[in-house]
Amino acid sequence: MFETERKDDTAAMKHVFIHGLESSGQGDKGRYFRERYPDMIIGDYTGSLQERMQTLYKRLEGESDLILVGSSYGGLMAAIFACEQETRVRKLVLLAPALSLPDFDPYLARHLPIPTAVFHGSGDEVVPPEPVRKIAEQVFLNLAYHRVDDDHSLHGTFSTMDWDALLEV
């Protein structure tokens, strides 16, 4: 799926879920991950992007070998974190990431080799898929892009995804 070496010690990796703008760590995706991956770092993020990023940085202080899963605005946050902390991130899984917001513009010249999987619903009316695809192809050098027949929240796709495989490198 990705052009990367496999690492046998997946226990050392830290899995992180970052929810979207109008969600929380208690939303459907947060509950899903909490039930199936109890060691996953799942928190709540509120306020401006800067405040949310400060919370994320505090939460991940001292952590490395990170696999970040970000949904919508959380996908934007995960991508920014990866751009700023490339050596600490092993993989990104972005669900309808809000990369087309101007907040990501400062990172458009980056070329990250981090394995990145993007899942985006073709019926997404919140974050249009095509601009995000173009940005993802420009920034992420090791990209697996998946356009699925779904909505912004990936209601029909999310629970059927192979999360065990997505959460390993």
Characterization of the model:
By secondary structure, the protein is of the alpha/beta class. It contains 5 helices and 6 strands. It has helices at residues 28-36, 49-59, 73-84, 129-139, 163-166; strands at 14-18, 41-42, 66-71, 89-95, 112-121, 140-148. It has a 6-stranded parallel sheet, with helices on both faces. Residues 1-9 have low confidence and may be disordered.
Summarize this entry quickly.
The protein is α/β, with parallel strands linked by helices and 169 residues long. The protein contains five helices and six strands; from the N terminus they run βαβαβαββαβα.
Describe how the helices and strands are arranged:
Elements: E1 14-18, H1 28-36, E2 41-42, H2 49-59, E3 66-71, H3 73-84, E4 89-95, E5 112-121, H4 129-139, E6 140-148, H5 163-166
Parallel strand pairs: 1-2, 1-3, 3-4, 4-5, 5-6
N/C terminus separation: 10 Å
**Please, what is the average pLDDT?**
93
Q: How many strands in all?
A: 6
**Order of strands in the sheet with the most strands?**
2-1-3-4-5-6
Task: State the shape.
Answer: globular
From the alpha carbons, calculate the radius of gyration and give it in angstroms: 14 Å
Tell me the number of helical segments per DSSP (H or I, 4 or more residues long).
Answer: 5
Structural class by helix and strand composition: alpha/beta
Strand content: 15-25%
Q: Regions with pLDDT < 50 over 5+ consecutive residues? A: 1-9
Main sheet attributes: strand count, strand direction, barrel closure = 6 strands, parallel
Order of helices and strands: EHEHEHEEHEH
